[in-house]
C-alpha cells in the first residue's frame, strides 16, 4: 500500500504546484482530493489486517481522481492558451 500513498502525495504536490502556477480552483480541489486519498490510504493501511485483498472502494475512487485530474489539466492548458492568444 505504500506505493498508493506515495502516488497520492506526489500527485497532491504536483497539483499544488499547478495551482500556484495557474491559480485555478480545479487544480486546488484536485490536489486536495489526492491528498485526501493519501490520508485515506494511510487509514486503510492501519485498519486492514490483511483481509483487504480486493479493494472495491477503488472502483469509485480511481475514476473520480482520474476525471478530476484530467479536468484540471484541461483547464490549466486552456487558460495558458488563452493567455498566449491575448499577448499576440
TrEMBL record:
Q: What is this protein called?
A: Prolipoprotein diacylglyceryl transferase
Which positions, given as ranges, span the membrane?
Answer: 59-77
Q: Which domain of life is it from?
A: Bacteria
- In the UniProt record, does the keyword Transmembrane occur? yes
Question: Which source organism does the UniProt entry give?
Answer: Micavibrio aeruginosavorus
Alphabetized, the UniProt keywords read: Membrane, Transmembrane, Transmembrane helix
